[in-house]
Design brief:
The protein has 260 residues and is of the alpha+beta class. It contains eight helices and eight strands. The strands form three sheets. It has a three-stranded antiparallel sheet. The protein has a three-stranded antiparallel sheet with strand order 6-7-8. A two-stranded antiparallel sheet has the order 1-2. Strand 4 and strand 5 form a beta hairpin. The protein is elongated, with a radius of gyration of 21 Å. The relative contact order is 0.09.
Length: 260
């Protein structure tokens, strides 16, 4: 017997059944990303139910698509099925956070079409073994423009909990421009920015231009000079690796403030 849902796609779409399935999958992925954002921003709390019908109505999609999104989030161990309450937000332990963070980083590298080789693995493993900090701060987007004879200019879009701020600034180099813009945004958000004390870059032997770059940045809190720490970022782009390490610095400070 034919699947009614597939038949519906075939009759009412100009695309093939395979294209229709891909379209449903794309909708499910977008729904999953929406729920991830709700989890990240505190809209959904650990142990809270995520109703299928209400989610479908809120997003304007079918319940079948919501179920597919739930399967994606279940595989990521963000949601679990409760026999009485349906899908609920999983209460995560430290190992869960580590595992989820690791999977997401590997997927991100794959999505960017980065080729991870055996020479790259020590860098990737060292990043994944770091304890993921409470992620209340995120660099959502950034652009650094550099022209001959002109100072580099950085424009960034950052999020702190439910607030987003955009800032633009110039600097002596691409990362310096980024940091100057970041300080502007952090000031508006009321966030502390640590002082950079050391910046180290390491690449695997072989000289491949596609190799992963490991950037380790050391920081010191201005108000507490004895409070020093380091953060690590891994990417095939040196500036992107530095941005990842810098984002971790902001989240490390947020975690310290929360535990003070």
């Amino acid at each position: 017997m034919s699947n009614p849902a597939c038949a519906h796609l075939h009759v009412h779409s100009e695309y093939s059944l395979l294209d229709g399935a891909c379209k449903i999958d794309a909708l499910a992925q977008r729904a999953a990303e929406f729920i991830r954002a709700e989890l990240r921003d505190g809209g959904l709390a650990p142990g809270q139910s995520v109703p299928e019908a209400a989610t479908a109505a809120k997003l304007g999609i079918s319940r079948n698509t919501v179920r597919e999104a739930f399967r994606v989030l279940g595989a990521e161990r963000l949601l679990v099925h409760n026999i009485h309450r349906g899908m609920v937000v999983r209460e995560l332990g430290e190992q869960d956070v580590r595992d989820i963070y690791g999977v997401r980083r590997i997927v991100e590298l794959g999505d960017q079409k980065k080729h991870v080789t055996t020479a790259d693995l020590p860098f990737l493993i060292s990043e994944l073994l770091e304890t993921p900090e409470l992620r209340v701060f995120e660099v959502k987007d950034y652009s650094v423009v550099s022209n001959r004879g002109l100072r580099p200019v950085a424009t960034i879009l950052v999020r702190c909990r439910d607030r987003e701020i955009q800032a633009t600034s110039s600097g002596d180099g691409g990362y310096d421009a980024f940091m100057t813009a970041l300080r502007k945004a952090a000031k508006d958000l009321g966030l502390e920015v640590a002082m950079l004390t050391d910046f180290r870059v390491r690449i695997p032997p072989g000289g491949r231009t596609t190799a992963l770059v490991e950037t380790v940045i050391s920081w010191r809190r201005e108000a507490r000079p004895r409070d020093t720490f380091a953060t690590l970022g891994v990417d095939s782009d040196q500036l992107a690796a530095a941005v990842i390490a810098t984002e971790k610095m902001l989240n490390a400070l947020a975690s310290r403030s929360a535990n003070a």
